[in-house]
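Teaching note: in complex prediction, the entire set of molecules is handled at once rather than each chain in isolation. The prompt given to students was simply: 'Predict the structure of this complex.' The entities are:
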Amino acid sequence: MQNGADTSAATECKRWTRRKEARPAELLEAALDVFVAKGFASTRLDDIAAKAGVSKGTLYLYYRSKEALLKAVVQQNIVPIVANAQQLADQYSGPSADLFRLLILGWWQQFGNTKLSGIPKLLVGEANNFPELAQYYHDQVIQPAHQLMGSVIARGIAAGEFAPCEIPTTVHVLFAPMVMLSLWHHSFGPCCPDNLDPIAYLNRYLTLTLTALSHPNQKLIPDSAGVESGQC
Amino acid sequence: MQNGADTSAATECKRWTRRKEARPAELLEAALDVFVAKGFASTRLDDIAAKAGVSKGTLYLYYRSKEALLKAVVQQNIVPIVANAQQLADQYSGPSADLFRLLILGWWQQFGNTKLSGIPKLLVGEANNFPELAQYYHDQVIQPAHQLMGSVIARGIAAGEFAPCEIPTTVHVLFAPMVMLSLWHHSFGPCCPDNLDPIAYLNRYLTLTLTALSHPNQKLIPDSAGVESGQC
Amino acid sequence: MQNGADTSAATECKRWTRRKEARPAELLEAALDVFVAKGFASTRLDDIAAKAGVSKGTLYLYYRSKEALLKAVVQQNIVPIVANAQQLADQYSGPSADLFRLLILGWWQQFGNTKLSGIPKLLVGEANNFPELAQYYHDQVIQPAHQLMGSVIARGIAAGEFAPCEIPTTVHVLFAPMVMLSLWHHSFGPCCPDNLDPIAYLNRYLTLTLTALSHPNQKLIPDSAGVESGQC
Amino acid sequence: MQNGADTSAATECKRWTRRKEARPAELLEAALDVFVAKGFASTRLDDIAAKAGVSKGTLYLYYRSKEALLKAVVQQNIVPIVANAQQLADQYSGPSADLFRLLILGWWQQFGNTKLSGIPKLLVGEANNFPELAQYYHDQVIQPAHQLMGSVIARGIAAGEFAPCEIPTTVHVLFAPMVMLSLWHHSFGPCCPDNLDPIAYLNRYLTLTLTALSHPNQKLIPDSAGVESGQC
DNA sequence: AATGAATGAGTGTTCATTCAT
DNA sequence: TATGAATGAACACTCATTCAT
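The expected output is the structure of the full assembly:
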């Protein structure tokens, strides 16, 4: 339970009053846990209610439907994080590589190493079923996060730290390993003995990424190599 | 019922024979389509049957259950792919960077640019519900694929093309963007206007990756920076 | 909660006192409205509470259950009406046809043209579910009302104004159009463009009824015509 | 079970084939029974299924929803009846009073004395909740039936048998006792000891009605009497 | 081999009722 | 007295699975 507070005897006695205010957060936390563990469709509202220590009906006092619960989980937990990171970047003066590293490590501490890291799995799985939610997540999280990483890279290029490159695509590529770390943790990770060490993974990621960014692009694919798009 | 045609006895006979043998593959293809589009839980067997042009009961002549169908979809489609790639690598002689590039482009043509690319999304979403299946996929696909990429990198290091590095973690990091490309295509991609161009993505990925691999690692994170693992 | 006004202590006090006494009546009025509009089962106590401007819990301070509320609605509203009519009839001296007409018009003004007219629909719909309530309504309302109309007809026959007839059955027949007017108003009426004009209906009803009552019965159905009862 | 046929040994053996065709009718009959007994909202689909001897799921093979079931009950049972009556009237030559009587008695035998007589109660109770259904019933049943009765009265007036009158309103008034007989049967009737004899009721109704129709209207309500419309 | 009618367990959602405040 | 948060039983509806044909 993230929040270690909440339990001094003094506060405890105002149980009823506190409950009412705390309930939504409690429910959301339980919902997050179960959604992440089972996926959206396989989650039973009973499970969430049980985990939150309330009856099934209580859920409906706070959230209109199962889908609304999922939406709330996403909205409540995700949006603030990107804003923090943006602020950090705005105030930072120093080498862009350091800023990049700082942001990645911050991501790890505030998101990746948190139960919140289960959310991307949820959304990837349900994006087709709830396009509106996917859109929301894209607009509120992915797009700003990409924006942020892009601005850091641009900053580095401007300062001559990084080699010039096409930024949006670069960001897409460089974001992938972070997201995959989340997904792995909540999908194959638990199944596999060769458990991935996230710290080693992050260090390696940073090394590779910053090495790549700081060297001029090699001409690696001759123009004639012709990678062409197909169907699908 | 799927076609009103009461065709001639002759063709009827041949078609039936062909049908019988082709059935399992037809069913799996239909299942793949629907599973990928809706996710496991939201897929109705009715939909798969309808798409395959058979009755719902027929599915059970070939597959014991919905879960078995999912397993079959995965097994049928995935296993062959890695073997091909391994063979290609074994026979290749030439620069490791070129081999790397070849494998990535092969992956794109045989998997990423195919409806098979929907499978990772499926498995990520259901790994917790079907650990056995996740294990299977890990053992049969992920592990061999990582093995392969690892051997290519080792080959490059041995030849002095790539800088020495810790291989397993590097592979994890470098595989991530490929998988994410699949996932993106089947989750957020359809929702978002700034549609990602896969070819540009792959080119940028190769450039960044091979640049990083071919340069000695910078000391980017001072030992004192202390990234420490937490809970979760 | 229903109004933001924190009025002065003085009025506040008076209002509260008044409120307390008025509450049951207010609740019943709200209940009547909603029951009539939606039917018993489709009525939510929330709706009644909201309409009455109280919390749902308050309803239970005054009425044991939803069913009790329905009973109270019926009891509170219906009983007084027949008594008034009976009194009117007792005091009346004059042609029986005029008395008949007076009673019908009184019925219209005090009941038919009132939200009370929604009650018969309620009872018809729920009679099977609440036999005790149906019994109560029959004993307290239908039976006395029939009694009254019967006495008026008997009075007319005794005075030679009406032709002799079997009274109880006649009353049943002659009451039907009145009840139907209520029911129509609260069922098909609102759906249909050819809106029934109640006044024209009542006038026509009176004309037909009094014409029929004041003429000797024709022999309309030969004894041999044989209408025989069946099952059901 | 209305239809005494259906059960010879020969037909019985084709059980499966026959079932499929017979099912909808069986379900509708069960639905009619339960709906009439309990009202729409208080009817559980389980009850209908049990009464029909099928599982709950089977209902959904034939009817999309509870509401659709109600609609089907109404459509299947009601519409044909009016058509029959219209045909009878079209072919009849003879005194209009006799035709009137014939139609009323036909109504009794084909509808009033049948479980179908429970339908009006249903519709009156649910008209507000399903306006579309009410509209349908009005258009398909009430309106044609009124039309028919109106044409009979017009025929009588034209032939000099009946006194001239305003027909639509008259029809409304004269239809009421028939409908009420149905409603009574399925609401208060079962609760009350003074059980109404339908045959006596019908005879009395016919006598009163035909007496009224065949005499010139008395001036019963002086113009000054002023029945005026009010609120509601 | 193929069908599709039938099943019934399972789940999201509603709502009358209760009770701590 | 009044509240409204909480409950939990109840029910419509779904869908994987079965099986007589």
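Point out the following to students. Residues 1-13, 220-232 of chain B have pLDDT under 50 and may be disordered. Chains B and C do not touch (no CB pair under 8 Å).
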